[in-house]
Amino acid sequence: MKPKVYITRRVPDEIIVKIEKEFDIRIWDETDVPVPREVLEKEIVDVDGLFCLITETVDRELLEKAPQLKVVSNMAVGYNNIDIKAAKEKGITVTNTPGVLTETTADLTFALLMATARRLIESSDYLREGSWKTWSPMQLTGQDIYGATIGIIGMGRIGAALAKRAKGFDMNVLYHNRSRKLSLEKDLNMKFVELDSLLKESDFVCIMTPYTPETIDLISARELSLMKKTSILINTARGGIVNEEDLYHALKRGEIWAAGLDVFEQEPISLDHPLLTLPNVVTVPHIGSASIKTRMKMAELAAENLLLALKNQTPKHVVV
Ligand SMILES: NC(=O)C1=CN([C@@H]2O[C@H](COP(=O)(O)OP(=O)(O)OC[C@H]3O[C@@H](n4cnc5c(N)ncnc54)[C@H](O)[C@@H]3O)[C@@H](O)[C@H]2O)C=CC1
Ligand SMILES: O=CC(=O)O
């Protein structure tokens, strides 16, 4: 009998075919609707492998319902949706998809930085709604990017890729991380600073840490109050790292100049969320890794991790 696998979303056909060759699969056959929790709870009961997305909460309660489960393969680098401690206790392997999305996510982060600094979305709306009557000296003016100081919190794979892009714009790069990255500091001529100094000195603050107990609300009222009035906050890491209520007040009071957000505490963000009422907030729907090539690579890697784990071989990227 083949091992059983549950796939929590319709992924491209070639990925499904690959998994289907080896395993008995069942799938939540939707592209834009996540599997309801009650369905997942039923489906997980007899499976050996789970192929899931960041939209699924794989907590202890769910894992308790899966006595046969050997592997949870997350199609993402971030795995804050999975209870790693519970998985480890149960001897369940958890895998993720680092690396293949690094450059694409750094591209989006820099694009969001540029769109926010130069008010691209607001300017596009201004033109289309017929407000553009003339060229005017201070019309839709934004913040300069070249030569500005960028502070990157979390100097991992994506943080480093972002720093390289910043260097291309002659930016001064500061970073804060759990540990120093001495060779990167030398290669990219960037400086390690404590978090408060980074917040005080940067024109752009970009968050690139994982979402962990230590990074919940890492940027709250106190941190925002340290930032320059002309500064811009960019978050493409995870929503809960920035306290959204505090961010709203800081933007409303002019304590910081603008924010570019790809990630939110609740996803999708509710359309009546106060942040969506502010013109100086650029929002996109968690599209950091969303290029066709990169999403294919992520799905392929997640499938490969799953296959290797179920064949008792070492997956390419093991979290636990
Ligand atoms: N918006 C999107 O679509 C995407 C978002 N992400 C997010 O980006 C995160 C980073 O991804 P990678 O760069 O591949 O991970 P990584 O593990 O290579 O880098 C994370 C860095 O953050 C540092 N860090 C962790 N906790 C910290 C703390 N409390 N203070 C300072 N630094 C801390 C680590 O030391 C590490 O250097 C992911 O965990 C995920 O949440 C990743 C891909 C796409
Ligand atoms: O948010 C996406 C990820 O890969 O993590």
UniProtKB/TrEMBL annotation:
| Keyword Signal applies | no
D-isomer specific 2-hydroxyacid dehydrogenase catalytic domain sequence ranges: 6-319
Q: Name one GO molecular function term.
A: glyoxylate reductase (NADH) activity
The record's PROSITE patterns line, in alphabetical order, gives: D_2_HYDROXYACID_DH_1, D_2_HYDROXYACID_DH_3
The record, for Pfam families, names:
2-Hacid_dh, 2-Hacid_dh_C
**Taxonomic superkingdom:** Bacteria
Identify the EC number(s).
1.1.1.26
| Keyword vocabulary terms for this entry | Oxidoreductase
Q: What class of enzyme is it?
A: oxidoreductase
Give residue ranges for domain D-isomer specific 2-hydroxyacid dehydrogenase NAD-binding. Answer: 110-288
Entry's family note = Belongs to the D-isomer specific 2-hydroxyacid dehydrogenase family.
Protein name (database record): Glyoxylate reductase
- Which source organism? Neobacillus ginsengisoli
